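Sample 3 of the quickstart, ligand heme C:
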Amino acid sequence: MTRWWLAPLCVVAVTVAARAAVVMPAAQQAPQAARAAQQAAPPAGYAGSDTCEACHSDKADSLKGTPHAQTKNPRTPAATHGCESCHGPGQAHVDDDAKGHIQKFGQIKPAEINDTCLSCHNRGNHAGWEGSGHERRNLSCATCHSVHSPKSTERQLVKATETQLCATCHRLQVSKTERAVAHMPVREGKMSCSSCHNPHGSISNVKNLKTGSSVAELCTSCHTEMRGPMLFEHAPVRENCATCHDPHGSSNDRMLAVRMPMLCQRCHIASKHPATLYDKDQITTNKSNRMFGRSCVNCHSNVHGSNHPSGQFFMR
Ligand code: HEC
Ligand code: HEC
Ligand code: HEC
Ligand code: HEC
Ligand code: HEC
Ligand code: HEC
Ligand code: HEC
Ligand code: HEC
Ligand code: HEC
Ligand code: HEC
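Result:
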């Protein structure tokens, strides 16, 4: 089905195209003019929401109080074509005994659903949708949102909470946030997946991250004290905080991805001390003064980098 009714929303573009047609080579004029005429046509074929409501009062009721029903905002369906802003012009449907000729969201392709919603939601947070992981894997706006029967109190989600929504497909990450050490605010409900991710995709960053252009930039947008540049930088900290921390949570102190001292020894196997990897014996009997408690960071306490003139070993 062609959704030509989505186009008349851009009245300005139509006017410009119509003007441009005047000075265009003859070969291009015909299709341009045809399209302009089609777009400029009055909304023939529309029945109006009142007509729809007569037979589908339940659907009309379900919109009440939602942002889409607000007539004061000129961008809403209520202020434009009502039901038909999303379902398309419906006069043919009203006239059809078989009740076809209408956009049925349960029966169309994800891309067609997305086109409908993106005709209004294509800016700001939504500008990164095209090409995002979710778009590529055929999710649609209606996978996560319900226009008529949302389960959440905010954002019209198909589940009661955002965490439950993400958990339907990302059980691993959600269960990590339930581990012993996680971003405390996540468990307390002060932070959520969307504090770090934009489910609609990201223009600037990897993994749908909503801020900055790298993992480190995302993290330091809140953890400003870790933001560089520093006099002595620790290479992995600038590269990717997730080398050492699991952003979703872990069973180790401070959400460390691996336990100390292994965390450091993954890279520092050739340092002068300790001469060898700590073995099980040393770990269990604490023979080494470098092993107890916080291990390497007992001495190298500024592992995120140092601004101290003699901080080259991150000891101060
Ligand atoms: C004269 C009564 C009547 C009017 C007016 C009417 N519809 Fe329908 N509509 C029906 C019937 C009957 C069906 C098929 C049975 C059903 O699924 O409810 C239907 C089906 C639909 C469906 C598909 C439902 C499904 O489950 O697949 C949509 C969407 C729909 N109508 C939207 C609209 C819109 C939008 C308007 C206004 C432009 C409208 N209808 C006007 C009677 C009507
Ligand atoms: C903002 C877009 C939007 C508006 C406005 C809207 N709908 Fe829907 N409608 C949907 C979507 C999306 C679905 C799929 C189920 C859902 O999301 O709740 C749907 C589902 C339906 C269905 C069930 C069949 C189907 O397509 O799955 C009917 C019937 C229906 N709408 C009628 C209406 C009527 C009548 C109005 C006006 C009173 C209306 N809708 C306004 C987007 C919209
Ligand atoms: C005719 C334009 C239009 C269309 C089409 C449209 N929307 Fe909206 N929608 C709006 C406006 C305007 C708002 C109010 C907030 C804003 O300005 O972004 C809104 C708000 C929302 C919200 C926020 C709800 C909240 O509680 O904060 C969601 C979610 C949403 N729309 C989803 C959809 C989905 C899914 C579709 C496609 C099925 C869709 N919209 C189609 C105009 C539209
Ligand atoms: C993977 C699930 C998911 C998909 C797919 C999805 N959304 Fe959302 N959407 C959310 C969540 C979660 C929120 C609330 C958190 C936030 O604002 O980022 C939200 C918020 C919104 C809002 C309100 C806040 C804002 O940014 O204006 C709108 C409007 C919206 N979505 C529209 C859409 C449209 C249109 C699509 C399809 C192109 C879509 N969503 C696809 C999960 C999703
Ligand atoms: C219906 C299933 C589904 C839901 C619900 C869902 N996702 Fe996804 N998500 C996917 C799929 C499929 C991928 C792509 C995985 C891949 O390509 O490896 C993905 C990828 C991602 C990625 C990685 C993106 C990338 O570029 O690699 C992030 C981050 C993500 N989702 C976050 C979320 C968040 C946050 C929510 C809840 C708001 C959510 N997802 C809800 C299915 C889902
Ligand atoms: C504190 C910020 C933060 C929060 C909160 C967060 N994430 Fe992430 N997430 C990240 C970062 C950073 C990455 C990239 C990690 C990497 O590159 O190793 C990521 C990666 C992902 C991926 C992609 C995994 C892969 O291997 O490609 C998914 C899926 C995901 N997160 C889902 C979620 C879900 C679901 C939630 C909510 C339960 C959530 N995230 C909460 C920061 C966060
Ligand atoms: C939206 C803001 C925000 C973002 C983004 C964020 N954090 Fe946090 N982080 C917090 C808050 C708030 C706390 C709790 C602080 C407190 O309790 O003092 C915290 C705590 C932590 C802790 C300490 C946990 C503990 O056991 O004390 C670590 C480690 C951490 N974050 C790492 C990261 C990493 C790595 C990233 C990037 C993947 C990141 N954070 C992104 C807000 C954020
Ligand atoms: C080389 C490994 C490593 C990298 C990379 C790393 N951290 Fe850490 N981080 C640690 C260790 C080890 C601790 C525990 C320090 C302690 O116990 O004193 C820690 C602790 C923290 C804490 C808890 C508060 C504190 O000062 O102890 C936060 C917050 C934190 N890191 C954020 C970040 C951020 C943000 C990044 C990226 C910019 C990052 N970390 C990169 C190893 C690392
Ligand atoms: C992902 C690899 C990686 C991890 C994990 C890592 N480091 Fe590093 N570290 C480096 C690199 C690369 C350098 C820079 C080495 C150089 O300049 O010769 C460095 C430099 C250092 C230095 C300064 C050495 C010098 O010669 O300037 C110290 C001290 C140090 N790291 C301690 C630690 C500690 C303690 C941990 C665990 C909390 C840790 N590192 C984890 C890669 C890592
Ligand atoms: C008892 C304090 C102490 C502990 C514990 C400690 N270090 Fe050090 N480290 C030092 C001192 C002092 C230096 C300065 C150079 C030197 O004397 O070798 C240093 C230097 C370094 C250097 C740079 C020089 C080199 O040898 O390559 C690295 C890398 C390093 N330490 C890694 C680690 C790692 C990894 C651990 C944990 C397995 C650790 N350190 C535990 C005190 C300590």
